[in-house]
Amino acid sequence: MAYETLLYEVQEGIAIITLNRPDVLNAFNEQMFRELQDVLRTVERDEAVHVAIVTGAGRGFCAGQDLTEMRARYEQPEGAGSIGEHLRSRYNPLILRLRNTEKPFIAAINGVAAGAGCSLALACDLRVMAETASFVFNAFAKISLIPDSGSTWFLPHLAGYARAFEAATLIDRLEASRALAWGLVNAVVPPDQVMPTAQEWADRLRALPGRAVGLLKRALHRAMTFTLEQSLDYEAHLQEVAARTPEHRERVEAFLRRRG
Ligand code: T3D
Question: Nearest 5°: phi and psi at 104?
């Protein structure tokens, strides 16, 4: 499929997905949803891809829902009543796909992320942010909506309730340094180091056994809603799977050979 709103390339097992609507800070429109669905399916199915990086073209990462398209939807007969359905059919599957795939995703946050653009970043497994970039969680409140696409879940899980509430209401620009202090991102770097850092992490992830990384991603994701008892049981179950991979035995042998 040829993409209009995305750039897609794969280099040495690392897929780079660039949201490419720079004139509107890479806001999501219908075309982008169709293309994202396709590209995520490709990443999932392509055995040559081990890790994916998501970034934005131009000065923004992603400004959330394209408001021009949102207004056009309101002019349709169902009007604002269709927003729940729009979330269920477009945003929610995208966020769940990022979380449920065993392949790790890195958000390379090159510039401002607003609304569902923040949710997209938080759904990834690792985040590196330009020191000049920011999160605008209160973009939702400013248009009289609540945070969606997972932000009401990710924000308190990562930053705690009080900070989540503050970010969603009072903070116009949550700057990169505060995002780091709050645990919303893994690293803050100069703008020209965002992609090199993401690439370096991707190289290191690719060097690890993919199945084990995928299973640990599943375990951590589920642990966010599990009790300790449930996590212990789930770990034991997934460890059975991990231990049956050839890489497990090979790597134990290799370690012991180096010692012996
Ligand atoms: O199912 C559903 O539809 C519900 C889902 C909702 C999910 C959501 O994401 S709701 C929240 C939607 N997003 C926003 O409300 C953010 C709107 N944008 C902004 O608040 C600001 O643009 C930013 C804080 C992100 C950046 O500000 P700044 O000053 O750096 O840039 P700017 O000048 O405002 O924007 C640059 C251009 O991008 C500008 O166009 P122009 O004037 O150069 O022709 C602006 O209109 C355009 N743009 C930015 N965000 C959007 C957008 N165009 C359409 N939709 C946008 N979201």
Answer: -75, 140
Q: Is the CB of 140 under 6 A from ligand 1?
A: yes
Q: Are residues 175 and 70 in the same domain?
A: yes
Instruction: Dump pLDDT digits (tens) for 212-237.
Output: 999 999 999 999 999 999 999 999 99
CA of 259 to the centre of ligand 1 (A): 57
Verify that 127 and 223 share a domain, yes or no.
no
How confident is the model at residue 242, as a pLDDT?
A: 97
Answer yes or no: is pLDDT of 81 > 80. Answer: no
Q: What is the DSSP string of 140-194?
A: HHHTT----TTHHHHHHHHH-HHHHHHHHHT-S-EEHHHHHHTTS-SEEE-GGGH
Ligand 1 within 6 A of 27 CB? yes
Tell how far the Cα of 141 is from the centroid of ligand 1, in angstroms: 13
Give the chain's domain count.
2
Q: How far is the CA of 10 from the centre of ligand 1 (A)?
A: 29
Residue 1 within a domain: no
Are both 62 and 171 inside the same structural domain? yes
- Residue 77: is its pLDDT beyond 90? no
Substitution candidate for ligand 1 out of 23, 24, 25 with most atoms within 8 A of CB:
25
- Does 247 share its domain with 162? no
Ligand 1 atom index nearest CA of 25:
38
Q: Does residue 180 fall inside a structural domain?
A: yes
- The answer on 134 and 37 residing in a single domain is yes
Three-state DSSP at 97 gives: helix
CB 64 within 8 A of CB 33: no
In the chain, the largest separation of any two C-alpha atoms, in whole Å, equals 74
Query: The CATH number of the domain where 214 resides is what?
Result: 1.10.12
